[in-house]
Write a structure and sequence with these properties.
Layout: H1 3-11, H2 21-52, E1 71-82, E2 99-106, E3 109-113, E4 120-123, E5 127-133, E6 135-136, E7 139-140, E8 146-153, E9 156-164, H3 170-181
Antiparallel strand pairs: 1-2, 1-9, 2-3, 3-4, 5-8, 6-7, 8-9
Length: about 200
């Protein structure tokens, strides 16, 4: 190698810097703005749905003396929907918020206690039936893994989905609620034609 060729090599253009910080920061800021926009749009959709359901009356509260507990259940509340429409989530009065739940069934009705969310009570006269299902409000579980209680509130029929910490409790709940509502002939599972 000659001296002239070494000078030519040294004079050639150097490689680009490994990190382009300006470009990276721009991409990160753009991504954060996009995520914030998506979150804002989801929040607006939730509030819009709540305004559409503003005609839903306030939820009843449990009576001071509900009577002796027939059944009790600890588990999760997965949401409420318009009856028969497993994706039409009801968000008014906090019914759209998933949470832990403690259920108590008495002669007076179904008491739903939800830590960190609105509690509600379904009087026995408003219970329609119960069944085992696999999905509600966008949540899908194994076949029969969800206890769905149908009840009336105002002029609307509502399906509320619960999952016990011990799923073997579900059939007893279906039988007890259906015997209270005199609809024991209702099927205990659905094929989910809407799915």
């Amino acid at each position: 190698m000659t001296y002239a060729s070494l000078i030519n090599l040294a004079a050639q253009e150097k490689s680009a810097e490994v990190t382009n910080w300006g470009g990276r920061i721009g991409w990160v800021v753009g991504l954060l703005l996009f995520v914030a926009l998506v979150y804002w749009l989801m929040r607006q959709g939730w509030q819009w749905r709540g305004r559409l359901q503003a005609d839903l009356p306030d939820l009843p509260t449990a009576p001071e003396t509900p009577g002796e507990a027939k059944l009790e259940l600890s588990g999760r509340y997965h949401g409420s929907t318009t009856a028969g429409q497993w994706l039409d989530r009801i968000v008014a009065h906090g019914l759209g918020v998933r949470s832990k739940a403690e259920l108590t069934l008495t002669d007076a009705g179904l008491d739903v206690v939800r830590p960190g969310a609105n509690d509600f009570f379904v009087p026995a006269a408003q219970l329609r039936h119960a069944r085992l299902d696999k999905g509600i409000a966008g949540k899908v579980l194994t076949e029969g893994g969800l206890l769905v209680v149908t009840w009336s509130h105002g002029d609307k029929l509502i399906d509320s989905g619960f999952r016990s910490d011990r799923a073997e409790q579900h059939p007893a709940w279906v039988a007890a609620i259906n015997s209270m509502t005199e609809t024991s002939a209702q099927p205990t599972t659905t094929e989910g034609a809407a799915r």
